[in-house]
Write a structure and sequence with these properties.
about 65% helix; mainly alpha; two-stranded antiparallel ribbon; 6-stranded mixed sheet
């Protein structure tokens, strides 16, 4: 038998408390007589708002068991749908509402149901509910647009907004604020401007919610002038406003302005929160402001955020790492009361930013010892460059396998890092295969494969990939053209390089930066067009940096142009006076043309300034283990030190029998000739090669990775070694790949 209808009565004390606390019937007299259906609907709404569906659903079942008039009505289902704990629950409510005829005439219920389906990623079901609605209001459209946004379907969200406008609906602040973030996901600056115009047209440009969204979007799209105009035109600004504008300037590299905005925020009486300090910490680090960093850290400590908020602690680790204070970053990390996977990723990235790949890998290995921490996207993006840097192919491949296992191998950022790994480890075939599998909607994968092909000297293939990129409608960025120009330089494609330099400016409106100019000078210099390269530098609209003059000096060394080399070196000594590598290049240039007075002058200059050469190291991976060797005398000799030295002496004797003569001009130390020869023979790449020879089967290819440019003598020696041992020796230095085989190198002796 059906339960008897519930009589109208005074509210029990507990029910009244629930309703008042939840905001329902806030001013209701507890002794008032309440209609039973209103009471039940209010309780359902209260429990749903409190995320307690297990208390709300029994009330629905009670209503369904009652006779008319205590049947569910238009107000019963919307709160239940919003609180549905699973897609199956939403589907059950959908079926129930259809059976009772409460869905189609009820716009609010249908909109809530569409929103619930989108919350669980059931886009098709949401569309079906939405399309079956006989009438729609703005709230229903907003539910669909925002839901598509949460499901990473920006193009569909924008299309639906267009359909909404086409059907004569006028969006409100929620509509505009939902569509604006889609501009960022699509990288569409024009759409951002269109939405701004739409907001102005419909009188929404003064809404705080809309203004904050516009500032955030403009900042993320690098449209700081537009963001600042919105900011300056606001009558009221809240914490979100200030955080958005400060973050926009910080992310665009306008760090001084970001710090000034922070001071303006304080002056306006708005107190910063943790997110403010995250942006500020990054800004002061990029400014190189040690004192400012300490002030930020002290502020965080005074507020107790270093203990209570892990985001603030992670920001402090990142800040000190960016300031090259990696030891301080490690201490802050060690002092964190709790560490999540982002904490570890931040420290790993910090080590890589400071050129400490070994330490980055060791930190990752320490992280793996914590069973509750699992690698995420950011972990792969932090660690894979360390493996690339060291040439640790086998370890990188294990990381690749792990990415497949957890479903991140086709993630655009992880995939790009994997392409870079295989390319930098000399595995171009594998890099190309991965590139073909990866979604290629952004420039990242394209830039990685173009750079990989270029550094191996495959210029024509790199140009072919760029042509394919344009055909697929991907807009190249400034990184694309750096990779392209470098590829043209390594392959001697001067005319194509000139064409690309013009193309980036005329077609894509990309303003060249120092890296583009350095690539052009390098390309012209490699081709022997030194006068044109010098004229190009003279005509630069920006001040040439050390990379530009360094490219010219390298070309002068190859072609023996001493006078132009002097000009280049004078500029380099002013721009980067402590970089001993430029002095080495100048000394080599003098030696090549037999000007020994010049060699002595450069060496005296190095001694007077007490310059120390950057320690050279080379790594090689044998039997899944990476060994790193440093040039010169070893304070901690390798376990196979004697075997390596014996192999080097054997190779030296065989090389001399084939005509090898050590080029001692690459040694700046003022020592005897025989000691200079010994110094050359103990350069890090030779130690790594000898180690590889004695630990691998005959004729096995060797892969060596060096942090500096390979010196001319080692380059010559490696050609001899490849012929003597009948091995292919692949050396990646700071400039490019060298494939040595049968006494020849792929670079054509120009690097």
């Amino acid at each position: 038998m059906p339960r008897p209808p519930m009589p109208s009565s005074a509210l029990p004390r507990g029910v009244h408390a629930v309703l008042v606390t939840s905001g329902h019937l806030r001013h209701l007299d507890p002794h008032a007589q309440v209609p039973p259906l209103l009471l039940v609907n209010s309780l359902i709404a209260a429990f749903s708002r409190a995320a307690q569906p297990r208390l709300a659903f029994p009330l629905l079942r009670r209503l369904l068991a009652c006779a008319h008039p205590l049947r569910p009505d238009d107000f019963t289902f919307p709160p239940l749908v919003r609180a549905a704990p699973s897609p199956s629950s939403a589907a059950q409510l959908h079926a129930c509402a259809l059976r009772l005829g409460l869905l189609h005439p009820n716009v609010f219920a249908a909109g809530s149901l569409a929103h619930a389906y989108l919350r669980f990623g059931r886009v098709a079901e949401a569309y079906r509910v939405f399309d079956e609605m006989p009438e729609r209001d703005v709230a229903a459209w907003n539910a669909m647009v925002s839901g598509l946004c949460r499901n990473a379907r920006p193009a569909e969200a924008v299309a639906l907004f267009g359909r909404m406008v086409g059907e004569g609906f006028v969006g409100d602040a929620v509509t505009v604020s939902s569509v604006l973030p889609m501009c960022v996901l699509l990288g569409d600056r024009v759409l951002a401007l269109v939405m701004h115009v739409y907001a102005v047209k419909h009188g929404l440009e003064k809404e705080l919610f809309v203004c904050n969204a516009m500032i955030d979007v403009y900042g993320k799209l690098g449209m700081l002038e537009e963001a600042r105009r919105v900011f300056d035109g606001m009558d009221l600004r809240d914490l979100v406003t200030w955080n958005s504008i400060i973050s926009g300037y910080e992310q665009d590299g306008k760090v001084v302005a970001a710090v000034e905005l922070f001071h303006g925020m304080r002056d306006s009486g708005v107190s910063p929160d943790v997110l403010t300090l995250v942006s500020l910490a990054s800004a002061v680090a990029q400014c190189g402001d040690d004192r400012g960093a300490k002030s930020v850290h002290c502020y965080v400590m005074r507020r107790g955020w270093d203990v209570d908020d892990i985001i603030a602690g992670n920001a402090m680790v990142d800040m000190y790492a960016k300031l090259s204070k990696i030891e301080v970053a490690q201490r802050v990390f060690d002092s964190l009361p709790a560490r999540d996977v982002v904490s570890w990723n931040t420290l790993i990235t910090g080590y890589m930013q400071n050129g400490l790949a070994n330490e980055a890998i060791e930190t990752y290995n320490q992280m793996l010892k914590h069973e509750d921490l699992k690698p995420i996207q950011g972990t792969f993006v932090s660690v894979l460059p360390a493996y690339s840097h060291l040439g640790a192919l086998q370890q990188g491949m294990r990381m690749h396998a792990l990415s497949v296992k957890i479903g991140l191998n086709l993630d655009i950022y992880v995939g790009t890092c994997l392409i870079d790994l295989y390319a930098k480890c000399g595995k171009l075939v594998e890099a190309m295969l991965l590139f073909e599998l990866l979604p290629r909607r952004s420039t990242g994968p394209w830039n990685a494969i173009i750079a990989g092909l270029g550094v191996h000297g495959h210029g024509e293939k790199a140009l072919g990939v760029f042509s394919q990129m344009r055909q697929e409608g991907i807009k190249p960025d400034h990184v694309t053209f750096v990779s392209l120009l470098a590829a043209c330089s390594h392959a001697g494609l001067v005319d194509q390089g000139r064409s690309f330099f013009d193309l980036m400016q005329t077609i894509y409106s990309i303003v060249p930066i120092a890296k583009h100019y350095a690539c052009m000078v390098d390309m012209l210099g490699r081709a022997g067009k030194l006068d044109e390269a010098f004229e190009f530098i003279q005509g630069m609209p920006i001040k040439p940096d050390s990379a530009v003059w360094g490219a010219l000096l390298g070309a002068c060394r190859i072609y023996g142009n001493v006078e132009m080399g002097k000009v280049a070196s004078q500029n380099l000594f002013e721009l980067d006076p402590e970089n001993v590598g430029y002095y080495v290049l100048m000394s080599n240039m003098y030696a090549k043309v037999g000007k020994w007075d010049g060699v002595d002058e450069v060496r005296s200059l190095v001694r007077r300034q007490n310059l120390q050469k950057t320690p050279g190291w080379s790594s090689i991976e044998v039997k899944r283990s990476v060994s790193v060797f440093y040039s010169g005398k070893q304070t901690d000799p390798h376990p196979q030190h004697e075997d390596i030295q014996r192999e080097l002496q054997n190779l030296l004797a065989k090389m001399k029998s084939l005509g090898y003569v050590p080029d001692c001009s690459f040694v700046l130390q003022d020592v005897e000739e025989d000691e200079k020869e010994q110094i050359l023979n103990n350069h890090s790449e030779r130690l790594a090669i000898a180690f590889g020879i004695i630990n691998t089967p005959p004729r096995t290819p060797l892969h060596v990775y060096k942090n500096l440019r390979v010196c001319g003598d080692c380059h010559n020696a490696t050609k001899y070694i490849s012929k003597i041992t009948e091995r292919e020796i692949i050396v990646r230095d700071s400039n490019r790949f060298h494939h040595f085989k049968d006494g020849h190198c792929s670079c054509g002796d120009f690097w």
